[in-house]
Amino acid sequence: MRNKDMKASPFRWMLKRNLFLLVAVFLIAFAVFPMQGMMRVLSAAREMETRDGQLSVVTRQYYMKELTLDFVYSPLNLETLCALFGTVGFGAALVLFRHLFSRKQAMLAAGLPITRGRDFLLRTGVYLLMVQLPLAFCLAIYPAAVRAYGLWSLFDPAVYAMRAGSTLLINLYGYAVGALSAALFSTVWSATLSGAVLAVSGEAVMYGWIAMAGWYLHTMYPSGTIRNAARFFPAYTQYKNFYLPERVCILPGVLAAALFGVLAFLAYRRALPERAGHALNHRSLEPAVLAWAVVLGGTACAAVMALYQGQEAVLYIGLAFGALLAWILAGMLVNQRIRPDFRSWKAPAAAAAAMVCALLLLRADPAGYETYAPAAENLAAVRIRRDFGPGEIRLESPEEIEAGLAWMAQIRKEGQESRREAPFRTGVYPDALVFCEGKDGSTVTRQYGYPEDQAAVLPALRVIAKTRGRQMSETLPELPRASWYPALSSFGIYGEEFREAFGFSLETGGSRAVNAKELREALRKDLQARTLETLQEPTLIRISFEGVNPENGIYEYSEEDFAIKPDDRNTLALILGADADKWIDYAQGGFAASDRVAVFLCEYEETGEGETRLKDWRRAESTDEVRDWMSRVSSGAERMFQWPENPELRVQVYALDELRDSMEDGSFDPEDPETLARLPEIEGVWSRDYQVMLK
Amino acid sequence: MLRITEAGKSFGSREVLHDIGLQLEEGHIFGLLGTNGAGKSTLMRMAAGILRADRGEICLDDRPVWENPETKAQICYLSDDPAFLNAATIREMGAFQRAWYPTHDGKRLSELCERFNLPMDERISSLSKGTQKRVQVCLALARRPRVLLCDETFDGLDPVMREAFRRTISEETWDRGMVTVLAGHSLQEMEDICDQVGFLHEGRLLTAGDMDTVVSGMIRVQFAGREEIPGEKLAELHPLRVQRQGRLCVLTVRGERESVLKSVQALEPEFCETLPLSLEEVFILEMEEQGYAK
Asked: CB B86 to CB A1 under 8 A?
């Protein structure tokens, strides 16, 4: 009798058989997304109700971010979410391919009337319905709730869709890795272990090798070799995508999921049921597994040992030791025996030899990446700027190009010196960027850490500073409004003191109205006349421009504030009038004339643990002495052109009455420098909070 | 119907089956006999499409079995260690078969379970090993396969059940024109039920054919000479086994009965007679000739 029950298809049976997956995934996803999300929705809805639906721009922006991006990702930590849903996908794959871990079940499945390829697709279909669907459903409940509560205007569906897609993608990636692991490794433990290795070992090896290569690989722009290379690893890009929702981050995830999916499909078609219960499904995989274990173990051991020891010899010892250890351990795991098996040595030995060669090559830098600098005559321009900062300086004339290259050579030299001190860094803070534009259209780019000894390239800096002033004057924003605020917070003085000195109230604003156009003209003249010495003066005030740009009709802000120096006479005269000289004198040490303050010159020294300690101090005896001190310390303004002549010296200002009280209660002992260091200095009262608007 | 052509299989560097050639027709029960590790299970798994033949071809009705759902659906392999879905009952296994095998007959399964006293709703894993084997056979028969491959299936069953299953399988084979292959070590049982037989040793199929042909391919002849017959004379008969007691000789020889008797008559014995050989004896002699356990 032929079975006529059309409902009894293998797919339906498989769905029914794995129904528990749907329940489990739904419970996990529901607990994470709708439940967390609803808290935010309710809070936003209450706020809307309280304010009668009228939200300020700032509040609106806050809720826009809160409801679209932070509703769950913020409290739960993005890495945790990626790990959670990646693992859910991985676990689902192990569940759906669990028959591969038991010889009997593998034989039973292999005897079913279905091709291996179709069987794989069937199980993947079950995964999509039982895992991806409930996950997508839970992700969709949240926007529905946002809409139901009338908060749709505070929600950006495109951004949310990107994040939701990333969650689904990391889950899919986990499934693909899990399916491949199950097809290649025929026990639960070996599949789990290999899954973790397949998913993240590439990144781990890359990080290790970049650390082992030394400093110079970090000079690759943008963001160093680590981030560039990491883009190819989906486990990295997927969770980074939550932070930076760039489409470019989605692509590696899609490609990796597809790659692992195809590999899993092919591996499943060739999986041997008779090998179920063995660590490896194919014996032929053993050399590759051992070789990769050697690479992983060698890299991890060498990188860790070198980072702690900082010696090159340790690097190679660590490499050899880690490789040997990993080979023995991996061999024991693969053969499921306590006794190590030394027979398979060729592939691991080849891997170890390749590693040593690669390391020698990498550290020798045969391509000369570290020392390469284009010839000045071949360059059309050199651009230098701080990473993440505005104010790029473009150096075009031969003199300027020479200056740019000299500056680059100096910061590279400092980088190389620092490499000798710490040869195995994990990164360099990418502060200074140099772009060398060739006449042939090519660009050589490097990023370096902050230069310390810029005095060594004083002539170059003079040229760069001058160019910077000229370029700033040419690119002043043509915006209709300007605002300024005092920038002397590093010379902290009481507000009352300041009012008495200048008749200027921070609460009521400035007394002089200046036209933004006139200010721009005055500033332009000052910028064109700037020299390195100007830039090294303390900043008195800062100016910014804003307003509707007549060219495009958009309300804009100037990219950076303009630091006004004592030499910027035209600007200061326009803003401060006759008070300009008093301000300049005050900033340059005149504040010490007050009978309410005590000014100290403090000398610090570095302790052996990388910290500084107050070694000695001296109280100023006259205002002129303070003026002299002030000329010798850094104002902490634009670091590219400013550096402390003596970084161990600081001018510290204290309230006299507080100092007396401290002496009485014994917390300040003039004989003990440490007690001074513990006293609170006068806090700056000129801060951005008290901006004074100019017309 | 089921044709195996020059099939070979290796596990790693170890070759477990060499150039197996066999043709099985419907309505026959084929006994696959072999020593331990001869490759019987591997051969049957290959025939069921569970394992891939590294060399050669296995076809059902001239269509390959490997990766062919249509032919695989018609073949049922019963392992010596029964495999069921985890925590499944017979009813659930029935649902599983209904989903995967269009020929599955639920009514037949109920009948068989009732006949062999099997509980439909109890977890199979909680049943005894013998009962699990009964479940396995009932599920297989309910599938109504065209090819039934039984790998030591009856081992562990009590004599009554063995007999009942043997009878049922025989009926199914003859009535439906099924091909049944039985592998096992109970040679007496094989001789009773099988009409075709093959010997497998160290991955090689030594002989295969009708039971009568295989069994009658060897003959045991007992005779007494007028005086003691020299060993050289007996050796000319190429005996597989020689037993002597004075003038009385018992030789086991490969060959046709008439030609063997003719050769013995040339020795001018006082009397001469042939004795029947059982399948077990033929198998043991074959294996001894291969040097097995000597």
From this structure: no
Interface test with B, best of A13, A118, A272, A286 (most B CBs within 10 A): A13
- Whether the pLDDT of residue A117 is over 70: the answer is yes
The two tokens of residue B49 are 């499409």
Chain B positions in Cβ-Cβ contact with residue A119 (cut-off 8 Å)? none
Tell me if A84 sits within 8 A of A174, measured CB to CB. no
- Stretch B6-11: mean pLDDT, rounded? 92
Selection from B223, B74, B243 nearest residue B148 by Cα: B74
Task: Pick the residue of A1, A2, A3, A284 with the most B CBs within 10 A to test the interface with B by mutation.
Answer: A3
Residue B187 structure tokens: 């040679």
| Percent over 90 (pLDDT), chain A | 24
In the structure, what pLDDT confidence band is assigned to residue B106 with cuts at 50, 70 and 90?
very high
Distance CA A48, CA A67 (A): 13
Domains of chain B by residue range = 2-210, 217-289
Residues in chain B whose Cβ is within 8 Å of chain A: 11-12, 45, 48-51, 67-70, 72-73, 77, 79, 81, 83-86, 95-96, 98-108, 144
- At A128, the pLDDT band (50, 70, 90 cuts) reads very high
* A contacts of B150 (beta carbons < 8 Å): none
Find chain B residues with C-beta within 8 A of A99's C-beta: none
**SS3 for A307?**
helix
Cα distances (angstroms) measured from residue A180 to each of A123, A198, A240, A271, B50: 13, 9, 24, 10, 21
Percent of chain A with pLDDT over 70: 78
Instruction: Examine the pLDDT at A490 and tell me if it is beyond 60.
Output: no
How many C-alpha atoms does A427 have within 13 Å on its Cβ side? 13
Which has more pLDDT, A641 or B178? Answer: B178
CB contact under 8 A, A107 and B45: yes
> What's the gap in Å between the CA of B134 and the closest CA on chain A?
17
User: pLDDT digits over A47-87, tens only?
Assistant: 777 776 666 666 666 777 777 766 655 555 667 778 888 99
The pLDDT tens digits of the residues spanning B184-236 come to 888 888 888 899 999 999 899 988 888 888 888 888 888 888 887 888 878 88
Position A687, amino acid? S
Give, in degrees to the nearest 5, the angle at Cα A299 between A293 and A305: 130
Residue A437 — φ and ψ, nearest 5°?
Answer: -95, 115
Is B132 or A6 the better-scoring residue by pLDDT? Answer: B132
Contact flag A110-B81 (C-beta cutoff 8 Å): no
Instruction: Give A217-247 pLDDT, tens digit per residue.
Output: 767 765 555 555 666 666 655 555 444 444 5
Report whether pLDDT(A634) > 60.
no
**Mean pLDDT of the residues in chain A:** 79
User: Which of B69, B98, B107 shows the shortest C-beta gap to A8?
Assistant: B98
Contacts of A110 in chain B (CB under 8 A): 49-51
The class of domain B217-289 in CATH terms is alpha beta
Q: Are A100 and A123 in contact (CB under 8 A)?
A: no
Tell me which chain B residue has its CA closest to the CA of residue A8.
B99
**CATH no., domain B2-210:** 3.40.50.300
Asked if pLDDT for residue A444 goes beyond 70, the answer is yes
Q: How many CB pairs under 8 A join A and B?
A: 69
Sign of CA dihedral A287, A290, A295, A296: positive
- Candidate from A5, A116, A274 with C-beta closest to B98: A5
Q: Give the Cα separation of B274 and B261 in Å (integer).
A: 8
| Interchain CB distance below 8 Å, B49 and A111 | yes
pTM: 0.73
Quick one: which of B208, B292, B209 has its CA closest to B37? B292
* Number of residues that this document lists for chain A: 695
C-alpha–C-alpha distance, residues A173 and A524, integer Å: 56
